[in-house]
Structures are given as structure tokens and as C-alpha cells.
Amino acid sequence: MKKRFLPAARAQLSCQEVAMLADSHAHLDTFSPEVLPQVLQRSQEAGVSLILSVGMNLDSSRRAVRLAEQHEMVYPAIGIHPWEALEIDLELSGRLRALARRPQVVAVSEIGLDFARRSDNKELQMLCFRHQVRLARGEELPVLVHSREAHQEVLAILREEGGYQVGGAVHGFTGTAAEVQDWLGLGFSVSIGRALLRAEMSHLAEVVPLIPLERLLLETDAYAGGQAPATAEPSAVRGVAERVASLRGLTLEQVAEATTNNLKALLGL
Ligand SMILES: [Zn+2]
Question: What pLDDT is attached to residue 18?
């Protein structure tokens, strides 16, 4: 590495020198088997060493488990997304539990409530979420939570079902400073994604420095087939980390190391 040719003003680092980054939320099972190896390769080149691949439903959760068997850097979370909320009968409950007990599985996700997307099935979403918080508690797995226009309801269910006992994080956080305090009060971490890079989310520049470094996670919510595939890969977590570093007056390595350690601690790795 020819460091002397790099500009001195800005600490530009090669990928190898960057402390490991971790993506706490990606939908790797949405990438085709043909492109996934390249996606993971690009992630590694960007310094990413750990990716939590979260399920949307039973099938994608199973695929996430399979990906974890094939790729060392991938860990699976299983769960039913609020967009796919459905009645969890005995049979589905048993299947989810069996999946949660697979040795690779480290979390229950993606679960939560999304009243922005749909408000006509709130009761169903809440039942589905509640069931999965119970599952997580029973299996002693942390929860990574999706919350959209349902902040109070999500918190209430986590409190009522003892979700704070297993710990967890709110994913893709775009809320307010007051909401950060609610999550911290519950003992949860706060995961920041690519929204931090969007101009219309400028309030996050003030909110992110309020999150204690030891409670901060980073993510991409990578999903194949988006409008901008180049940014919708786990490698994009590096851009989020760089922005967090500049907002907090830290180096990229400090942010990478802290957030990677935070995710490992949360997932028991
Ligand atoms: Zn997601």
C-alpha cells in the first residue's frame, strides 16, 4: 500500500485498513444466486465483514438460513415482516419456532408494525408482532424491529411482552430525538441506514450524534431490484459509516469498530 501517495488532508484508507464494518439489516435472499457472490465480494472490498440477512416471511427466512450456511460473513434472522402480517396459527407457529432453533439463527427479524404502509390491518399486525416477540423471548433471541408510524404501539408491545429482556434494535431509524430516548430507555440499540444520506432526512444529522456510540448500529436495508442497485448493497454501509464519523468527529475506523462490536454483542457472536 503506497500510503505516501495519498492526500494527507483526508485520512483515505484502503479497504484492507478499514476496521470491519457490519450491516445490521439486509435482505440478501432477494439477490439472485448469480449476483450474490459479487455483492458479497464488493461488500468485503468495502470493509464489510458481517451481514445480518433478515427474513420477510417463512420462505425468505429459510433462504436467509441457507445463505448463512454458504457464506461465512452472513448471519440469518428469521421473521415475518409487518407488510406480510398474517394470522400465526399453530402450524406456522411451530415452523417459526423450529426455524428459530436452527443453530445459525441469531435474531428474530424483520418484525414490527407499519401503519404507514397499511392501516387497515392494525390488529393483525399487532398480533403477528406480539407473537414473534414472544417467540424471541422464548428462544432468547434479540429482536430487530421495523416501526413506521406506530412508535407507541411498538413500544407498548415490546414492554408488555418483555421484549426488552432479550434486547434488540430498531432498524432503519428516521425518527426524532425523543424517540431515540424511548429506544434507549427500553435498552435497545438504534440502527441507522442510508436515510442519513438523503437530503430530505436532514434532521437525522442532529439526531444521530445523540445516540450513544455503544448503542449505534449501521445498516443498508439492501434489497435487490431497487431503483439504485449500486447503493442497495451491503457495501453501501461504508457511506453511512463515513457520514456518521463526520457528524460525530470520529474516524471511520472508530465508527466501524464500535458498530461492528455492538452488533456482535447484540447477536451474541
Ligand atoms: Zn428491511
Answer: 56
3 inside domain:
no
Q: SS3 helix, strand, coil % of the chain, rounded to 5?
A: 50, 15, 35
Name residues with Cβ closer than 5 Å to ligand 1, which is an ion.
110, 221
Distance CA 264, CA 158 (A): 22
The identity of residue 266, as a single letter, is L
Task: For residue 34, report the distance from its CA to the centre of ligand 1, in Å.
Answer: 22
- 40 domain residue, yes or no: yes
> What's the average pLDDT block by block, 10 residues per block, for the chain (269 residues)?
35 55 96 93 96 97 97 98 95 96 97 96 97 97 97 97 93 97 97 94 95 98 70 90 97 97 97
Distance 159 CA to ligand 1 centre (A): 22
Question: 142 lies in which domain range?
Answer: 19-267
Residue 11 within any structural domain of the chain = no
Residue 70 domain-assigned (yes or no) = yes
CATH number reported for the structural domain that contains residue 230 in this entry: 3.20.20.140
